[in-house]
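User: quick one, sequence for these tokens?
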């Protein structure tokens, strides 16, 4: 769920996938032809084939900035962020006014949680093209991760003004409103995003969290169901759906087990799902939170405290729930929905 803002940022790269090739007239066996075929492969998520074509385009024309840019996007899609940045660097060196290369590099810096560098790149993109809505989305997402919420909202406002039919502007702003615990505004933005693009799982997931946090558990369950129908492998949403159903007095033990089979148990939040399925205990979850992805120990601990705390709420172990939810509140990064959700849950607990 924390990835909502990141997705709003990387949407800039996806939306500009073909833009770098405008005005290029390919001829067979030319650098441009290889570049364009690489773009087509990347659009089909065939990243290795795409990179091979961009390699050949660069071999034939080492000054073709678009080929470096597109290869950078492909490396970014493979989570090879340093290689992506190196390619965006070269694209910018070859063409210092290449707006898409600045947004692409900004997106990758955001994925690396280097938000100051991301903001600097989006700043430059906006200087080069003040009407480029995706640069405002990228910068808004970076500001959101830095907990500069008012700046983030201002950027999403501008993105929406420039392109009111692009769902990710509303998704990004809705995510920031949720981080501020302004859930009515968050729900309104997610509503609009869903009207514009009902195929975005993250919009349903974001609205689900907002509904859950305001005690609208039946509506939250419906949203999480919709989200999973679009992205069945999102373990975080599997957990939220179980909680929303349980808080709606629905027994979903069998469906939880079925939904969990779609999630790789070796990846996070696999250990939390194993705990909910009563295969491991809470201590094992906490150990797993510290032994997982070295780049995300705080976020994993945040999730462990929150979801184990929510299970304590369901078991009506109020003291344990309060202890764990306080730890979630104090551990979760400010750009995590679970930080605000833990605050709300603590207020709902019986005194």
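Assistant:
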């Amino acid at each position: 769920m924390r990835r909502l803002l990141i997705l709003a940022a990387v949407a800039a790269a996806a939306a500009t996938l073909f833009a770098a090739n405008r005005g290029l007239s390919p001829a067979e066996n030319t650098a441009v032809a290889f570049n364009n075929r690489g773009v087509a492969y990347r659009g089909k998520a065939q990243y290795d084939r795409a990179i091979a074509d961009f390699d050949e385009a660069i071999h034939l024309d080492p000054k073709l900035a678009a080929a470096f840019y597109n290869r950078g996007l492909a490396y970014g899609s493979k989570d090879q962020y340093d290689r992506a940045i190196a390619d965006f660097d070269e694209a910018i060196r070859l063409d210092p006014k290449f707006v898409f290369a600045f947004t692409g590099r900004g997106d990758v810096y955001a994925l690396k949680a280097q938000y100051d560098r991301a903001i600097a790149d989006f700043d430059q993109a906006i200087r080069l093209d003040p009407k480029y809505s995706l640069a405002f989305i990228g910068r808004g997402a970076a500001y959101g991760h830095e907990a500069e919420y008012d700046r983030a909202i201002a950027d999403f406002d501008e993105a929406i003004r420039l392109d009111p039919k692009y769902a990710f502007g509303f998704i990004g702003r809705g995510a920031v409103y949720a981080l501020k615990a302004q859930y009515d505004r968050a729900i309104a933005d997610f509503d609009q995003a869903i009207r514009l693009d009902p195929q975005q799982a993250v919009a349903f997931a974001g609205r689900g969290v907002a509904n859950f946090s305001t005690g609208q558990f039946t509506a939250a369950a419906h949203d999480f169901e919709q989200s999973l129908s679009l992205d069945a492998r999102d373990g975080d949403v599997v957990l939220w759906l179980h909680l929303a159903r349980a808080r709606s007095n629905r027994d979903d033990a069998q469906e939880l087990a079925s939904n969990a089979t779609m999630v790789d148990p070796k990846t996070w939040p696999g250990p939390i799902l194993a705990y909910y399925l009563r295969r491991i205990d809470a201590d094992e979850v906490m150990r797993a939170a510290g032994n997982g992805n070295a780049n995300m120990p705080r976020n994993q601990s945040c999730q462990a405290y929150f979801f184990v705390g929510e299970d304590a709420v369901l078991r009506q172990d109020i003291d344990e729930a309060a202890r764990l939810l306080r730890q979630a509140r104090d551990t979760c990064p400010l750009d995590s929905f679970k930080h605000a959700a833990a605050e709300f849950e603590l207020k709902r607990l019986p005194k």
